[in-house]
Specification:
Layout: H1 42-56, H2 60-74, H3 77-89, H4 93-106, H5 113-127, E1 130-137, E2 143-146, E3 149-153, E4 160-163, E5 165-173, E6 180-186, E7 191-196, E8 204-212, E9 218-221, E10 224-228, E11 231-236, E12 238-245, E13 249-250, E14 252-258, E15 264-269, E16 271-272, E17 277-284, E18 289-292, E19 295-299, E20 301-306, E21 309-316, E22 323-329, E23 334-340, H6 345-371, E24 383-384, E25 387-388
Parallel strand pairs: 1-7, 8-15, 17-23
Antiparallel strand pairs: 1-4, 2-3, 2-5, 5-6, 8-11, 9-10, 9-12, 12-14, 13-16, 17-20, 18-19, 18-21, 21-22, 24-25
Amino acid sequence: MRFRQAFPLIMACIVVSPMGTVPEAHAQVAAKPTTVRAQLPPDAQRSWDRATEAMRANLWATAVTEFQRAYDLSQNPRVLYNVGVCEKELQHFSRAASKFEQGLREGEGKLSVDERERFVQAIAIVRRFVGKILVASTETGATLTIDDYEIGKTPFTSPVDIDLGAQRVLRLRKEGFREQTLRLDIAQGVLTRADFRLEPLLMASRVGVEVRGAPNATVYIDGTDMGPSPFRGDVPAGRHTFEARAQGYVTATQTSEVVYREPLSLVLSLSKERKEAKVRIEVQPDGALIEIDGKVRGATSWEGVLPPGGHQLIVKKTGYEASTQELALQVDQERTVRITLLEDRNRSWIWWTIGAVAVVGAGTFVSYIVFKPSDPAPYTGTFGPGVTTAHARW
């Protein structure tokens, strides 16, 4: 699509007498600069001159850059007309319309009737070659470019101007996200939608961590300080350990899986830190009772917490000598105590004596039974004087 229509460049603002003098009737009125160039500061004038030279050579890209610089240095809205003319020659119709409209807006009350009319006519001409798109994005603060020309950042509250034509190239960029490109055909009078869905470079989800039970708690993720509670931010997908820490409180820890595009909310509760010591007691033989400060805590083994200081530990079991000792514990100390009870010798001797007596008595009785002669059989034989003959049968 080619568009050619002559646009006069603004060169003069007022008319002066041929001699360059002010008419008599206006002798008390200070003379105004006769051209736009004359209204510009020296640096802007140099850019103006370079721009006009580029125009004569049909170097419109160079001309638009220099005219824009002249405007930036002077803030003179009349210069924007020339910027718009150069954009039109480059067939950047939406940009040309934007510059013409900006000049008309900023020149309110400053432009002459002819200058204002020139802006209005230029806008009407280029607007015939400009369409509209409705831009939507999943991310705010993303930069939109159309045909490599920066338009602005999302969200856009109204439709965006775009040149008519096929395969207009739209790009949306945001740090930490993959750039997305759309190619759209733009027709006159049709509102076209441009829907962008930016994907993060790191697959992440929104995570919220709230801490209860302690003021001024700090949130940690995988050991990294994320600042004071509550935490709200994007966390990469995967398994993470969340912690809440506060001075004087026991650290609360929770490990959770962060799933891409699935928001996660956690509540970590802190409890006041108990100044205690951890103790484990292991005893032999099995079944021995464990008593601490007069209270039976268990048998064979016991593990728990005790306040710091001195404690009396007694381990006992029938048939064994009791063990008594003092435990001196410090804050946050972890201690393991192993005790083996010895057999009670005195009690063992008594039972041995009683058993021995019983064994001896039983042996005597058995011997008596074994060795006691049986009743003798009656004697048989003849008894003569001085001779005795007997036969015993056992």
